[in-house]
Specification:
The complex is a heterodimer. Chain A is mostly beta strands. Chain A has no helices and twelve strands. In chain A, the strands form three sheets. In chain A, strands 2, 5, 6, 10, 11 and 12 form a six-stranded mixed beta sheet that branches. Chain A has a four-stranded antiparallel beta sheet with strand order 3-9-8-7, with no helix packed on it. Chain A has a two-stranded antiparallel sheet with strand order 1-4. The model of chain A has no long low-confidence stretch (mean pLDDT about 95). Chain B contains no helices and eleven strands. In chain B, strand 5 and strand 6 form a beta hairpin. The chains are: A mainly beta, B mainly beta. The interface between A and B is medium-sized, with 21 and 25 residues.
Amino acid sequence: AQTVTQSQPEMSVQEAETVTLSCTYDTSESDYYLFWYKQPPSRQMILVIRQEAYKQQNATENRFSVNFQKAAKSFSLKISDSQLGDAAMYFCAYRSHQGGSEKLVFGKGMKLTVNP
Amino acid sequence: EAGVAQSPRYKIIEKRQSVAFWCNPISGHATLYWYQQILGQGPKLLIQFQNNGVVDDSQLPKDRFSAERLKGVDSTLKIQPAKLEDSAVYLCASSWERRTEAFFGQGTRLTVV
């Protein structure tokens, strides 16, 4: 079974600074997707960025970028120019692209605080 | 485009009582998911529907949890009888098709006392 590990329960960053959130995963599959979701106090899970395992190029979405190391099974999220609205829980998630299982497997999450 | 709608937002019940949650997915989305998120953990899939058929319910505690998706649109998740450990946020998500982006609702926070 696939597992996702987020070892840092909390982090803080100063507004306008850069922060990196770490995530590791375990799988025997070669084809899969990785995601970072943001969950503000409203509880709604919001997709931040997605990476397809077969793509070597790291995904980027405006201020958000990932460092995908497939051999090391590492998937970190970098937030540049941090804003107060980035404060939330962040979850790393895995989804198989093989067979019939399409469920998202989430890590335990990490609370990000942005200080003004 | 309207998002995934869930109700109620909050529910407090006593153990051994029953409770039901409702989800209305984004219009046209064929795939619907129910996730359970216990405090301090990431969401865990309870059940996945494709139209009105079940794709995956391997982690649904079937002795007390049940779910249905009427006519492949709205869905209800029921717990009967509830236990203290069922206290959690129940998130509904939908996607256009299998293996496409899932959009989440705001969830229902259940407290069992």
